[in-house]
Design goal:
Blueprint: E1 2-13, E2 16-27, E3 31-36, H1 42-49, E4 57-62, E5 65-66, H2 71-77, E6 78-81, H3 93-103, H4 108-122, H5 137-149, E7 155-159, H6 167-180, E8 185-190, H7 193-199, E9 202-207, E10 210-215, H8 217-224, H9 229-239
Parallel strand pairs: 3-8, 3-9, 6-7, 7-8
Antiparallel strand pairs: 1-2, 1-4, 4-5, 9-10
This protein binds adenosine-5'-triphosphate (ATP).
């Protein structure tokens, strides 16, 4: 079953077309990466799919609901860990998690249960009492993903989850993301080729708002006639082959 289907999705900012007639199909349970250089339109795509910004053309179905006509239903199905840090810096990690549970009107018991569950899943026990703003970028991101999962979304959006993290923190976060694979649909944006290669079931390569190619690493390598994904990415982006 399809988790996401976009139909000629467009976002125009005055004269700039940030997303240009995007057609995308993402299956339920898939980890799909949108890969592209800066300014390719990845964040804008995610913002439209998560109803944070309205498309200027086309539409998309998220969990079967239209982002233009049924945004409230869409918002109930999704979780978002945005590029800019989502944690409240002056609150402790536990307070951040409690805040989101409160937004969803969880009872005291359910809040405690949820925090226990997520602490186990994301190994947050040691940082629960610490101020979120004082944690490293990797830990803050881990907390942000845990917060996005509180509502038990069917679809999770991760916008540049490892941006600015050192290599160790990046690999640790990859493990966290891998542990979610298959359980929910994940749409991730990145400009790190190795990240897309390490995590994704399929990858969509974007440039200047357009989707140039979509497929598994093997399919994209075959398309570019190489065994090396970095070479394939560079070749597809340079040739501008829209498929
Ligand atoms: N609110 C806005 N107003 C005007 N232009 C915008 C706005 N948001 C994004 N853009 C432009 O749209 C284009 C796509 O931006 P977007 O952030 O979606 O790219 P991206 O692929 O996510 O890049 P990055 O990897 O740098 O985050 C860029 O040229 C950007 O400058």
């Amino acid at each position: 079953m399809q988790a996401i289907k976009t139909m000629e999705l467009v976002k125009q900012y005055k004269t700039l077309t940030a997303v240009d007639r995007l057609y995308l199909d993402i299956q339920q349970g898939e980890l799909f990466s949108l890969l592209g250089v800066n300014g390719a339109g990845k964040t804008t795509t995610i913002k439209m799919l998560s109803c944070l910004t309205k498309p200027t053309g086309g539409d998309a179905l998220v969990g079967g609901y239209s982002i233009t006509k049924e945004p409230e239903q869409v918002k109930r199905l999704i979780g978002v860990s945005p590029q800019e840090t989502a944690v409240a810096p002056n609150l402790s990690v536990k307070e951040n998690l409690e805040l989101i549970c409160g937004i969803h009107s969880f009872s005291k018991g359910k809040t405690e249960e949820k925090i226990r569950e997520l602490s186990g899943q994301f190994a947050l026990d040691t940082v629960l009492k610490r101020k979120a703003g004082k944690l490293s970028g990797g830990w803050q991101r881990r907390v942000s993903i845990a917060m996005a999962l509180i509502s038990e979304p069917q679809i999770l959006f991760l916008d540049e989850p490892t941006l600015g993290l050192d290599v160790i923190a990046r690999h640790e976060l990859w493990e966290t993301i891998r542990s979610l694979k298959g359980k929910i649909t994940i749409i991730l944006t990145t400009h790190y080729m190795e990240e897309a290669e390490a995590l994704s079931d399929r990858i969509g390569i974007m440039k200047s708002g357009k989707l140039l190619a979509v497929g598994t690493v093997e399919e994209l390598n075959a398309l570019a006639g190489t065994n090396d994904f970095e070479t394939a990415f560079v070749s597809i982006v340079k040739e501008d082959t829209v498929v």
